[in-house]
Amino acid sequence: MKVITDRGNFQTVKILIAAKAQTAGSGSGTDLKVTEVKHGEKVVPYLTESKLPVLEVKPEKFLFSVNSAVRLLLTSTGIESDSKQIDEWLEWESSQLLPYVFPVLVNHIGHNKTDKQSDSLLQPLLTYLNTSVKNKTYLVGDSLTSADVCVFGTVYPLTSTPILKGFPELTSWIEKLSLIDAFKEAISIVTQNKGPVVFKESLLSQPAMPSPDSLTSKSTSKSSSVSSQPTESSEVEKQLTEEELNAAEKCWRDGVAKLPELRERKHPILPIKGEKNILICSALPYVNNVPHLGNIIGCVLSADVYSRYCRLRNYNSVYLCGTDEYGTATENKALEEGLTPQEICDKYNKLHTEIYDWFNISFDHFGRTTTTEQTKIVQDIFWKVYNNGHVIKDSIDQLHCDKCNRFLADRFLADRFLAGRFLADRFVSGICPMCSYDDARGDQCDGCGKLINAVELINPKCKSCTSTPTVKTTQHLFLDLPKLEPELRQHLDKAFDNGLWTHNSKVITNSWIRDGLKPRCITRDLKWGIPVPLEGYTDKVFYVWFDAPIGYISITATYTKDWEKWWKNPNEVELFNFLGKDNVPFHSVIFPCTLLGANDNFTLVKHMSATEYLNYEDTKFSKSRGVGVFGNNAKDTGIPADVFRFYLLFVRPESQDTAFSWDDFLLKNNSELLNNLGNFINRLRDSIRNILSISRLGNQMMQANKPWVLVKRTPDEKARAGSVVSLAANIAWLIGVLLQPYMPSTSEIICTQLNGNPKNMVIPTQFIPVLKTGHKIGKPSPLFQKIEASLIEEMKKKFQGKQEKSVPAKPEVKSAPANSVLPKASDSEIASITDQVTKQGEVVRELKTQKAEKSKIDKEVALLLDLKKKLSLAQGIDPATASSNKKKGKKK
Ligand SMILES: Nc1ncnc2c1ncn2[C@@H]1O[C@H](COP(=O)(O)OC(=O)[C@@H](N)CCS)[C@@H](O)[C@H]1O
C-alpha cells in the first residue's frame, strides 16, 4: 500500500499512526510507502479536485477518506473490530470536528491571524471533547482505536495555536497520546521535527472544506439527538469554476439522454452472457412459526433492499426465497396444533407469504422445500457426494423416548463430531446444568444462552409425553468435511478476496475452519424430511440443515426449468447470501462443501451479508413467551410497512446486536421521516442515512434561497426562484428513486407526485435532472404521519409478553434501557414526556432552520436536554447511564 501526500499535510499523521500502531500491535504491519507529490496535485483520476493524502490500496484503487484508511489499517490486522462507537466518533470527527478545525488552522497557521468567528464556532466541539477525554487515555474502550487516531490527528495541530487554552483535559489527552511511539514517529515524519509551521503550505493549497455536515445531528455533542443545520457563518463558500458551471449546464440540458432506461423484467430471468448476473438468496425462514422482526431484517428485508437496488442499477439479478419446511421444529408444531406436518407447512407458508407481501418484499419467486424438485435435487446431490467418496458411515448415541418411540436428541449426534454447534433439539427439555433455568432446550439454554449437550440436562423430559428418555445407538451418515477442506479453503480465499463479506461472516467462517473441520452428521431418525435413498438408511431422513440450502436450488427449479443456468454457471453468476449470524457456517462451510463434494460445477457463494441479532427492547424475541413484534402484529399496528422497513433498516444490526425500541421508533419516525424527509418532499449507513443527508441538503437549499420570497421580487430573482424550485424537484426525484429499495411505497408516492417518467427510475452515477423546465408535477400530499406517544405505550404493553418469563438479551444490546436502576414512572407519564421531547425537538429544529439567534437556540436546546433527562428518570434510567448508552448506540 502507498500513502500519497503533499509535504506537511497534517492529515497524513493519522494514516502513519495507524500503520505504525498496526506494526506495534500485531507484529506484522502493512508495508506502507509514502510518496510525496506537489501541493494541490490531483492524484485520484475520478475526483474533480485534489484530495490529499490518499491511500492507494491496490494499483489505481484509492481510499480518499483518511478515516476509512485508518479504519482499514487497524481492522485488517485485527487490532480493532467493527464497533458502532468507533464509527460514531469517526463520523463526528469527519463531519463536525474537522470542518470546524480546518478554517481555524488555515487562519492561525496559514495566515498567521486570528478569526474570532471560526475560533468561537469551534469552542463547543472542543468543550465536548474536553469532557469526553476527562481521565481517559482512549475514547472507546481501553485500547487504541481509529477514533483516537482520527480525533488526535485533527486536534493536535491546534496545540500550536492559543485555542486550546481553557481545555486542560483535552490538552493532557493530546500530550498522553503524543508519548506513544506510533504517534511520536508519525508526527516526526510529517513535521520533520520543524513544528506546525510545516503545515502552512499544505493547508493553503487545500480546497475549502465542505460546510459541517448535517448527516448526523449537527449538535455539539455526538450523543444528543438534537438536529440542526449549519449556521450561515460557519459555511465556507465554495467558488464554482467555469468548467464546473459548464458541466452543470450541460447536465441540465442533455443529462437525461445519458440515463439508461429501466430494464423491463420478464420472467423467468436467466443469466445473460457477459453481464453482471446476480443470484440473490435470502435465508429460508422456518415454516413452523410466524417470522419476527429480527427474522425480517436478518434475511428477507436486507436481501430485498439489495435486490431492488440491483434492479435500479439495471443489473441482471434474480431474488429467490421460500420457506424451510422439514425438521423437528415442524414435527413439533404439528403435534402442538394437532395438524399433520404438511398441513402446518401449508398453513404457515401462506402466513409467511402474506407477511412478506405486506412488508413489500419483492421476491422474483417465493417457494418452499416440500416439493418434488427438492427431493430429487437433494437425493441427486447426495448420490454425487456419496459416489465421490465424501460420505462416512458411523454409529452414534441418541436420546430416545420409548413411550413415543422416537429419538429426541439431535445434539448428541453433533457433539461427538463437531462440538455440536447450532443443532436444535426441540423434542427434549430439562433443567439447565449451568444456570438451573427450568425450561432449557436440548441444544441450548434460553436462560443463560450456553450450549448444552442434551444428556447433561437435569431431569430431561420428552416434550410431548414428559417421560424420561433413554440412550440408544444408531447408524448415521456423515459428510467428510476434513477431506473437502482444502478445496473449501481455496474457494474461500478467492471469495474473501473478490467478494463482499461482512466482518462477522468472515470471522465466524474462519473460526470454523481454523482448527480443522470434523465430519458432519447429515441424517436423522425422523419422519418429516427427505428420505435417505441409501440401502440400510432408508428409515432415516436428511438432516434439515443438509437439505435447507439445497432449497435455494430447488426453489430456482420451481421458478424455471433452466435453473442450471443459475446454479451450474460459477463463472458467470455471482451468488449473494443474506442471513443472520447463526446461519453463517451452514452457508460458508457446510453447503459449499456439499456442492464441492458433488463435483458438478455448482455455483458457490461469492458474497455474504450476515447481520448480528436484532433483539426486542431489552430482551429476545420469543414467540412462546409472547415477547416482541412478529410479522403479522406489525400489520395490525396500523403503522405503514414503509415505516417499519425504514426503522428496521435504520437499526439493522451490522456490527453488534441492536434492539427494536418503541421509543426510538417514535423518535425516528417523528424526527427523521416527518420533519426531515417528509418536510422536504412536500415543498414540493452507504445507505438510507445518505438519502436523509441529501434530503437535509435539499431542505437547506430551499431555506437558504427562500424561493417563496424571491418569486415576489425582481425578474432576475423570480428566475432564480424558478431554478431553485426546479432543482428541488429534481432532488426530490433523486430521493424518490434512491428511497425505492428502502421504502418502496413512499418512493412510488414521491415519484407519482412528481409526475416523472417511471422509466427514469434508475440510479444514476451522477446527479441528472430528469424533470425538465416546464414540467408539471402532480398533486402533493403529506408522506408521513406523526406517531403519537400514546400509541407507542399501547404497543409496548401489547408486545411485552409474560414478563416473569422473559429472557434477558445479552448485555451488549445497547439501545434499550437495560440498566434501569431507578423506580419507573407510570406509562402515561412516560408517554407525555416523550411527546414533550418530540415537540421540543421540533422547536429546536425549526429555530435552527430559520437560523435564529444563537442565544435563542441555546435556550431551547437547554430545555430539550432537561426534558430528555426527565424522560430518562421517568423510564427509571440514570440520566448519566442513558447518555453514555446513547453515545454508544446512537448512530443506528
Ligand atoms: N433476532 C434475529 N435478528 C436477526 N436475524 C435473525 C434473528 N433471528 C433469526 N434471524 C435470522 O432469520 C433468518 C430466518 O431464521 P429461521 O430461524 O426462521 O430459519 C433458519 O435459520 C433456517 N431455516 C435458515 C435455512 S437457510 C435466518 O437467517 C436467521 O439467522
UniProtKB/TrEMBL annotation:
GO terms for biological process: methionyl-tRNA aminoacylation. Residues 206-240, 802-821 are annotated as: Disordered. Residues 79-197 form the GST C-terminal domain. InterPro entries: aa-tRNA-synth_I_CS (IPR001412), Glutathione-S-Trfase_C-like (IPR010987), Glutathione-S-Trfase_C_sf (IPR036282), GST_C (IPR004046), MARS_N (IPR041598), Met-tRNA_ligase_1 (IPR023458), Met-tRNA_synth (IPR014758), Methionyl/Leucyl_tRNA_Synth (IPR015413). GO terms for molecular function: ATP binding; methionine-tRNA ligase activity; RNA binding. Gene3D superfamilies: 1.20.1050.10, 2.170.220.10, Glutaredoxin, HUPs, Isoleucyl-tRNA Synthetase, Domain 1, S15/NS1, RNA-binding. It holds the Pfam family tRNA-synt_1g. Residues 211-233 have a biased composition (Low complexity). It catalyses: tRNA(Met) + L-methionine + ATP = L-methionyl-tRNA(Met) + AMP + diphosphate. Keywords: Aminoacyl-tRNA synthetase, ATP-binding, Ligase, Nucleotide-binding, Protein biosynthesis, RNA-binding. Residues 829-885 form the WHEP-TRS domain. This is Methionine--tRNA ligase, cytoplasmic. It comes from Lottia gigantea.
